[in-house]
Design brief:
Helix content is 46%, strand content 15%. It has helices at residues 14-19, 22-40, 48-55, 59-67, 81-91, 107-113, 117-120, 155-162, 173-185, 212-255, and strands at residues 45-46, 79-80, 98-103, 123-130, 149-151, 166-169, 190-193, 206-209, 271-274, 277-280. Helix 9 (173-185) links the parallel strand 6 (166-169) and strand 7.
Length: 282
């Protein structure tokens, strides 16, 4: 008999959110991305094995992660894609969406603004600020409604109207701390910084840092470790091959015939035994 598990109603308690480990939260975001693709492809049901493979994790880990959300899916059948997607969105606080302001309309800032995936995942860009007169007043490409870059000096006064929930910092390193201070003073409590500089903020403010150089360094380490592992495996194979040759050679040496002695022996009967046979003495 198939056992049915209904997805709980939306609305996640603070206690539940606090109980979910940070590593699980990161994987939930990955599952959500996969589920969004499946939903776009009109896939109705997905098994734990299929979802795990698409997310790049083991099926046991996936089931453990989803257990933090309460009962889900149909045992022996799989998960309802839409229901599970909505459930994860609810847990991640995405149900009502987020309004985002960005400070720093340089190359990186413009690239982030033009990325359509943010809006599809519930993040709407509502304000862009900079202090460069050359970009202030210019319209951002890729934003519906024509988002215009505003002077960063206007940020404190614009917060009430924009009602942002997340701020993104994409300014040069030397300006990152001052921009963080400005955002905190304006009431922002959730900040994402693309500067490698460690930012000082009050305890009630959550600051997450994305350092692309660090990520590439981690990839460099993994590449070096993989090369070292491959070299060690090759050395072990060569050593094993050498040991095999040595054993075979040793065995051949033991079974080879021994060379007889050339020392002459005089047996009775007047003959002399040599390595070339018997010779009759006159």
């Amino acid at each position: 008999m198939t056992e049915q598990h209904e997805t709980p109603p939306t609305g996640v308690s603070k206690a539940l959110q606090k109980d979910i480990p940070q590593a699980t939260v990161a994987r939930l975001a990955t599952y959500l991305r996969v589920l969004a693709v499946l939903a776009d492809d009109a896939v109705a049901i997905v098994s734990s094995e299929e979802l795990a493979v698409a997310a790049g994790v083991g099926s046991a880990k996936l089931r453990k992660d989803l257990s933090f959300l309460g009962p889900n899916g149909v045992r022996g059948v799989g998960y309802d894609v839409i229901k599970l997607r909505d459930r994860i969105e609810d847990v991640l606080g995405l149900s009502e969406g987020h309004r985002v302001v960005l400070v720093g309309a340089g190359n990186l800032g413009r690239a982030l603004i033009g990325y359509g995936g943010f809006r599809r995942r519930g993040f709407a860009m509502v304000g862009v600020f900079d202090n460069d007169p050359a970009v202030i007043g210019t319209e951002m490409p890729g934003i519906t409604g024509g988002l215009v870059v505003r002077d960063v000096a206007e940020l404190p006064g614009a917060m009430a109207a924009l009602e942002p929930t997340i701020a993104v910092i994409t300014v040069p390193d030397r300006a990152a701390q001052s921009v963080c201070d400005l955002l905190v003073a304006a009431g922002m409590q959730h900040i994402l910084s693309f500067s490698p500089v460690a930012l000082d903020a009050p305890a009630h403010v959550e600051v997450r840092r994305v350092d692309l150089a660090v990520e590439m360094q981690l990839l460099s380490f993994e590449r070096a470790r993989s090369a070292e592992s491959a070299a060690a495996e090759l050395a072990a194979e060569e050593l094993a091959a050498g040991d095999t040759v040595g054993v075979v050679s040793s065995r051949l040496t033991r079974v080879a015939p021994q060379t007889s002695s050339h020392a002459a022996v005089r047996p009775s009967g007047g003959t002399e035994a040599t390595s070339k046979g018997a010779v009759v003495q006159p």
